[in-house]
Design goal:
14 helices; alpha/beta; 504 residues; 22 strands; Aldehyde Dehydrogenase, Chain A, domain 1; binds nicotinamide-adenine-dinucleotide; globular; binds manganese (II) ion; six-stranded mixed β-sheet; Aldehyde Dehydrogenase, Chain A, domain 2
Length: 504
């Protein structure tokens, strides 16, 4: 393994001035190294389509090395070789270091992903730190149970780490998805081989360097950048990786599950796509509903798995709601992610840009009404205007398929039963929302929606303590909260005979 080049970049922006100097290799066994075959991949600035830098690109041989490093660390310096309190202390320090490097991490994230610097700084990076800190607190608190059977026997359970786990994450919240994966896995004593998205490889490498500074032993965390078909597939099908956690599209989630099944039947958790309904009743506070519904779809440029991409508005307030909603949507500021006023930056890539534009064309062709947006914003980069369609029916493609961009479809409804049926008419079940001042109605509807999250009178509220994940084709398992610990532990039952005589 040979050393790798560094990425040196000076930010001279209205929001952040400073220099980043970081290695671009694979992070294996606590060292930044070039890939076995020396290949690199380019990461693109989505505001202009230009190359930011290149980073080492791994393949299956690099995954083998990373797995060996992780296994060695697991057997010697992590897992049950260190107390929960010891792991917690390191995770706490890790969270502090992320906070201490807030501006630099936010700038890297913004550069690589195109999201507004102010949002990366105010949300993505602090939430990543908060997630690690939350799980630091659990590191010495995840115990088993004593189970009484009868007076002649007893049993207890142990929550043991799984061992070497694989994690594959997407580009839409690179550092936050990283933290959601690292927090529970490290707190419970696992060693990790993680692949960031090939679109956004940078913050994970910077965070890897911080993990060493926090005292995480070498080999506990390994980061291998590369493509899904090579590195991602090598993780999902590796015989020595005992668990894979994946966040990304439903299509790739199926591949990961198949690869897990046909290799070693590794444990699988999946966080996948969505087409989440946002239901606004006549008795809602209209101005509040307008604000949340706008944030619900256009936050992160529509590139959120839980985006409120199907809005349902009851007929009594439809006219007034739509008038205010369109005014709000048209007031959103698009532009340079490093300008203070920017809310919406570019989409992540040319491929995503083309895909979203294809959906907009299909909406027009199928007869939905384009109320605003639908075009490129500006002359370079992958910017798309916030786009609203009305007169959308459940047979329209734009009603059914996840667009993963700044495109919302609005449907007018008459009564509660009809809107619940429409809301649930989807293969997905990630998130949803209901707006009403009637608490009985809000809770009644929340109970009937088939989704892992329901927001009442708000949208996109995530919290490290609250589980997040999908029903139906939106996934398997839950991230965040105490629930996520179960993703990274194997339960062992120990039976003890006290006085029962032998059976023969
Ligand atoms: P994607 O599925 O294309 O890629 C996700 C990750 O999987 C990337 O790291 C990619 O390189 C890797 N990958 C691709 N092919 C693979 C393969 N054959 N085997 C193993 N790994 C492979 O998704 P994306 O474009 O990065 O992200 C957008 C999608 O992710 C959307 O559908 C969105 O809804 C979903 N998403 C879901 C959540 C959630 O929490 N449920 C969060 C973020 C994104
Ligand atoms: Mn990028």
């Amino acid at each position: 393994m040979s050393p790798c080049p560094v990425f040196k970049h000076t930010f001279d922006t209205p929001s952040f001035k400073g220099t980043v100097n970081m290695p671009t290799g694979l992070f294996i066994g606590g060292e930044f190294v070039a890939s076995v075959d020396g290949k690199t991949l380019d990461t693109i600035d989505p505001t202009n389509g230009k190359v930011i830098t290149s980073v080492s690109e791994g393949n299956s041989a690099d995954i083998d090395l990373a797995v060996d490093a992780a296994q060695k660390a697991y057997d010697t310096v992590w897992g049950e070789n260190v107390s929960g309190a010891g792991r917690g202390k390191i995770l706490m320090k890790f969270a502090e270091l992320i906070e201490a490097n807030l501006d630099e991490l936010a700038a890297l994230e913004s550069l690589d992903n195109g999201k507004a610097f102010s949002i990366a700084k105010g949300f993505d990076v602090p939430e990543a730190a908060a997630c690690l800190r939350y799980y630091a607190g659990f590191a010495d608190k995840d115990g088993g149970k004593v189970i009484n059977v009868d007076s002649s026997k007893m049993a207890y359970t142990r929550h043991e780490p799984i061992g070497v786990v694989g994690q594959i994450i997407p580009w839409n919240f690179p550092i936050l998805m990283l933290a959601w994966k690292l927090g529970p896995a490290l707190a419970t004593g696992n060693c990790i081989v993680l692949k960031p998205s090939e679109m956004t490889p940078l913050t994970a490498l910077r965070v890897a360097a911080l993990s060493l500074e926090a005292g995480l032993p070498k080999g506990v965390l390994n980061i291998v950048n590369g493509y899904g078909l090579t590195v991602g597939n090598a993780i999902a099908s590796h015989m020595k990786i005992l668990k894979v956690a994946f966040t990304g599209s439903t299509l790739v989630g199926r591949h990961v599950m198949k690869a897990a099944a046909s290799s070693n039947l590794k444990n699988v958790t999946l966080e996948l796509g969505g087409k989440s309904p946002n239901i606004i009743f006549d008795d809602a506070n209209i101005d509040e509903a307008v604000s949340w519904a706008c944030f619900g779809i256009f936050f992160n440029h529509g590139q959120a798995c839980c985006a409120g991409s199907r809005v349902f508005v009851q007929e009594g307030i439809y006219e007034e709601f739509m008038k205010k909603y369109l005014a709000k949507v048209e007031s959103l500021t698009l532009g340079d992610p490093f300008h203070e006023a920017t809310f919406q930056g570019p989409q992540i890539s040319q491929v995503q840009y083309d895909r979203i534009m294809g959906h907009i064309e299909s909406g027009k062709k199928e007869g939905a009404t384009l109320l605003t947006g639908g075009k490129r914003h500006g002359t370079e980069g992958f910017y798309i205007e916030p786009t609203v369609f009305s007169d959308v029916h459940s047979e329209h493609t734009i009603f059914k398929e996840e667009i993963f961009g700044p495109v919302v479809v609005v449907t007018k409804f008459k009564d509660e039963a009809a809107v619940i049926a429409l809301a649930n008419k989807t293969e997905y079940g990630l998130a949803s929302a209901v707006f009403s001042r009637d608490i009985s109605r809000a809770i009644g509807v929340a109970n009937k929606i088939h989704a892992g999250t329901v927001w009442v009178n708000c949208y996109n509220q995530l919290h490290t303590a609250i589980p997040f994940g999908g029903f139906k084709s939106s996934g398997i398992g839950r991230e965040l909260g105490e629930y996520a610990l179960a993703n990274y532990t194997s339960v062992k039952a120990v039976h003890i005979n006290l006085t029962a005589p032998g059976p023969m």
